[in-house]
Structures are given as structure tokens and as C-alpha cells.
Amino acid sequence: MGALGNIVPLVILLGFTAFGAYIGIQLYVWVNELADRGIKKMEKKNVVFSKDGMKVGVKEVRDEDIADKTQSLFVKAWSYTSFPAYKSRLGWKTTADDAPAQYLHRRDKRR
Q: pTM, whole model, 2 decimals?
């Protein structure tokens, strides 16, 4: 029984060491998967990590796309503006009923 009594603590020590190694390996695998997911997510946003450091890429935007967006914003801004108390002296934004008589005569002469 004396030899068996010396082996039991060794088996317990090896069991704890194996359990600790298993936990360590699982943490290592989990951390690497987490880092890979983070890298893939950042690459979608054009951020690349390399040995030289972090590089941020800029998506290519064509001049035509910029012009389209700018024009669209100007058109929307123009459409949403209104001047309710404004009466044009030139006859703009008036109906035939609102226009002065002198402008109506000019329109009639053109026809």
C-alpha cells in the first residue's frame, strides 16, 4: 500500500495539470477566433492591420456620384423652401389671376 499511497498525489497533480492545460488551450482558441472575427469586421470597413501598423483605406467614390448627391440635396432644399409672403415684381410664381395686367397683355401678344 505504500507505493500506491505515493502514486495517488501524482495522479491528482497530473489531473489538475491536464485540466488547467485544457482550459488554457480553450482560452487560446477562443481569443484567436475573436481576433479573427474582429479583423474581418474591420476589413469590411477598410481598416487593415499589418506589421507596419494600421492602414485605413478610402472607398473609391466617383465624381459623378458626388455630383449626383450634391445636386439631389440642392433640389430637395429648393423644393422645401417657400416664401409665403413673397410677391415677385417680375411675375414669377403667380397665376393668371394674381398677375398684374401689364404682364397679362405681354403674354397675350406672344400668342
A: 0.43
